[in-house]
Amino acid sequence: MTEATGQPTADDAHLAAAEEGSVKSSTVDLGSIDTDSTKGLTDAEVEQARDKHGLNEIPAETTPLYKLFVRQFIGFLPLLIEIAALVSLAVGDYPDFGIIFSILIINAILGFREEYHAKKSLDELSNSIESETTALRNGGVAVVVPTTQLVPGDICFLVGGCVVPADVKWLRGDKMTIDTAALTGEPIPRKYPSPDYGAVMLSGTTVRAGECYGQVMLTGTNTEIGQAQADVLKDKSVRVVSVFQKKIMIVVQALVSFSIAVVLAVLLVDGIVYDGFKTSPRDTILTALGILISAIPVALPLVLQVNLALGAAFLAKKHHAIVTSIPALQDIASMSILCSDKTGTLTTAKMSIIPQSIYAEEGFTKDDVTMYAYLCANSDKKDDPIDRAVVFAFEKCEGAKKKVEEEGYKQDTLIGFNPEVKRVVAFVSTPGGKITTIAKGLPAKVIDTEAGGKDSAECQWKVEMAHDETFMERITQTDKGLSSAGYKTIGIAVAEGDARTDDKIIWKFVGLLPMLDPPREDTANTIESLHLANISVKMITGDHVNVGKETARLIGLGTNIHPGEAIRNATNPEERKQMIWDADGFAAVLPSDKREVVLCLRNDYGIVVGMTGDGVNDAPALSAAQVGITVEGVH
User: Fold this and answer.
1) Which of 43, 93, 224, 620 is the most buried (most CB within 10 A)?
2) Is 275 a catalytic residue?
């Protein structure tokens, strides 16, 4: 059975294996480094490791501003304009020279401005990972060091609220709650170490709770997030010519080539046949120059920049869309495939209860399931995706609200979630002094607290129907059906009485609460509009394959969704390319998988690819696509 209390589920195993596999395949050989988790490395060992592996940072090439400006005068069209300006100057045609030179400078300034802003973004990205962490050095002495100084083999200390500074293997301490949204884009934290996710916490993720010591395994560009950032920096360091600009240049090159042929013909005829080279060489050259200059679209770059800038201004004013690459406005018109992140892009990035899919056991209603779930939730935990979804569903359920008011229910005590027991227990009272005990959590542990082994919780029970095979089969199949459709499920049970003082009270299973990150209201219509425009859409998500398929079904996409490991493990390049082409999307992916899909479609199939996303994990794919689109609500 699945559960939605922040714990890993069996459906996530393939993603965990992929993450663990990626770490194992690239983990450095620690060799003779002392891996004693109480002593750490010596200064000599740190220097040795740093010489071998470098700093824990993303190196970036520094491009001087003057080079950015000089770049604007290099290229086919600028070169032709420069030649025309020099010829005009050589024959003394100063008015034409002034006009041509002015256009060349204005166009260079506009291009320089765009590349300067790109360089600023690049610098901000490369400086964003600078922070400090605690490491054990020289026999176990705790020292605070910059994260850039960490090396493989270091023993570092992780606490709640910090960003994991490298790929770190858990050694000892608490079981860690890790927010992996930076890599997967998914809102529910994961537990490390665990059978599903292994013991390696990946760089760039955030510690939500717990304290532990861990050993640094990979640093810098060897980490998954480091490679992703390095790919972005690499893309930004290369001057990319858009598809629109390439098409314009093809037309210009054809026009100029024809014009050069005409100019040569005029020169030969006028100069040789009519003795122009002897009688009036200046007039002969000016005539040819006039033909050449009239054929070269010297104002084309300026006209394009101005018109596209006006379009960008219109989008910003009317639709609040910020355009960072002006030629991309025209590339959208050539786009054939749009790849899209799911969480926060196609969906709301907020787990929600799906009312119509709630399962209520005989004797209870869907309103009862919602009400008891609310009474067993902490409405103050605004950052908890489960309780937040439960409270929101209750506020929208008039039947549940009415019953709480009529009965006068009031939550007295709440035993919060524990990774070991996988459930929450609440004690609720009424004005008459009656006590009701409510449990919420992993369905198997709510039905029988000894499922999978007895735990240390104070309250232990079995629901009254736990011995009924028909009941268990019904609940199991219902939960399995919801899980296969992509839902996370929470089980609810209730007992009339105080389970702290009376272990004889009768527990009843109330129902299952299905949760899903729902699509945005306009997603289905947007997908339909894209299909009508002959643009295919592929969903690429870090969530489970089942969740991806259910979301795809809800928004009108195909459900041929493959796991990300299929990309990483493919041995035949042709089969891999065909799989990417045929798939409706990919799930359980890492940032590098998203980028790989975009690069395959762009380079191997030669089509214009768009990518939408809303998080850091989408950045490598966004920078690789000809059209990168970030959506409102970036996290």
Assistant:
1) 620
2) no
